[in-house]
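User: Can you model how norvaline sits in this protein?
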Amino acid sequence: MKRDLVSILDMEKDIEDVISLALRLKRDRYSKRSELDGRTVGMIFEKPSTRTRISLETAITQLGGHGIYLNPNDMQMGRGETVEDTAHVLSGFLDAITYRAFSHENVLKLAKNSSIPVINALDDVEHPLQVLADYMTIAEKKGRTSNLKFSYVGDGNNMVNSLVLGCALLGMDMSVGTPEQYKPNEKFIAKAREIAKSTGAKITTTTNPKEAVADADVVYTDVWISMGEEKQKEIKEKAFKPFQVNADLVSEAKKDYIFMHCLPAHRGLEVTDEVADSINSVIFQEAENRLHSAKAAFITLLS
Ligand code: CP
Ligand code: NVA
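Assistant: Here's the modeled complex, given as structure tokens:
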């Protein structure tokens, strides 16, 4: 049976094992590996990417496989060939597909119609690969992934959806602070709370950024304007001003809090340089961990 990673919930049973494997792979980063020997992974990107594209391609290479970057505009998909037909065709050539898409529906369609694993490389609803790197970074910095308070301040977007499910799975308390009109998706909050009943995580939402960050071990933010939302720039920037992660806001967190951001950051908007470049900031370690956690994801899904 093939195994997809469309939602972080697809790792419900082994998220902790995947994080441990990623930590081992990082320690062992210079050993030659062959888990993807002779295998080819297609990487479809409908949107730009620095971290995801480069970490995935490097991960595939370091595991002995071959990655092919696929721009939909250079494929027949860009001229209207259906996602379903593309899935059947690519399944005949490749061993896995990673897909960065505008629409979550299309990621689901690709997964449903492919006989090979499909990995969500970010869509409008989730970003599972990113959160694996995030929890790996928390494990490194805090020595654990439960009994912590994770605070997210900003837009109730794709990052929040994956983070809230991930925190619930791991038993990490999560407090989400957003403006009233940009609250996280209720469906994801409800699902997270259901999971949290068995893991002990406490999931709360608020429209008060200081309340969200109070006593936090982790302070996380993301861009206010996600890819594809450029038209909403002006209106969103206004609404999010009080949610900027700056020195005043993080003074509410624990002294040894860590600052995280999936990046790219819009410095001076969702976060100030003062916080992003502070001693508490782990943003570049977090970015590097995209490589190690991607390798762990490939090994888990493909071998
Ligand atoms: N965090 C992240 O996914 O970055 P990219 O858009 O550069 O891939
Ligand atoms: N929410 C952002 C994440 C970028 C990695 C976006 O979707 O653009």
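A couple of observations from the model: The mean pLDDT is 98. The chain has two domains: 8-126+290-302, 130-286.
User: Helpful, thanks.
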